[in-house]
Amino acid sequence: MADNENHQLNSFRQWIHEQQPILNSLDTDEFLLRFLHVTNFQLDNAKEWLIRFWKYRTENPQWFTNRDLLKNSLMQEIAEIAYYFQLPKETKDKQLIVIMRMGHYDTTKYSLDDVTKYAFAITDILNRQEAGRTYGFIIILDLSEVKLQHISQFTPDRVHRYIDCWEKIYPVNLIQIHFYNYPRIFDPILYLFRMFLSRKLNEKIFLHSKTSDGTINKSLHQYIDSSLLPNEYGGQLGLIDDINKTFIQWIREQNDYMIQFDQYGIDLKHASKLLKTIQKEHD
Prior knowledge:
phosphatidylinositol bisphosphate binding, CRAL-TRIO domain-containing protein
């Protein structure tokens, strides 16, 4: 790490300590570097991002509490169905690949809040990886099994909150976003996504529409080599269920790291004022 970057890291940590008890944050190098990397080591921007991160989590306890992968039976069940998982191989540019099968859950058994809780828990774990922080993520949003029951849960408010989370709150470097097996029934949701997304993130979206001749996999392979993908996507990596078994073992090993986030947060009565103070100093 360059001297200037190390100085920014130390200054960031000192600032966090000075904000207690309003802001109570994890302050490890690995955690703070996420925010510095995503803001190109602009300290004031990193501070804003961190405040928004904890404010969002404190405001949405339905997604960020009771997430223990070893004790919460609902989380264990969602893990077993391979709703959201990382593939074992990186791209040639060292980017990590994750898959979310957006319709791969029973809406009579699990709510959108249930699978969202699981997805954020896994994202907390995935973000711990240096490769993700440095080189970024490619995400495949698989719509193969999406039905009206799934789509009806995506209200404009929910879509807006999700977009804010991925673009302004979670320090995630998204390189590409692939909508796989894209159905026309999803058009209204995609319209909402694009409406709320920045131009920069909109340009990272790629659609692979449903086809009858199997060319959908060829479309995806233009961006992601088939050797990096599961068999179900025309790849050579093996079956999703086998990949997910290894993934589940790995995330369970990271469980203690993930659940420690429950002890941190921000005083919502003072969060907005703190954010405005940083923005004023930045201006």
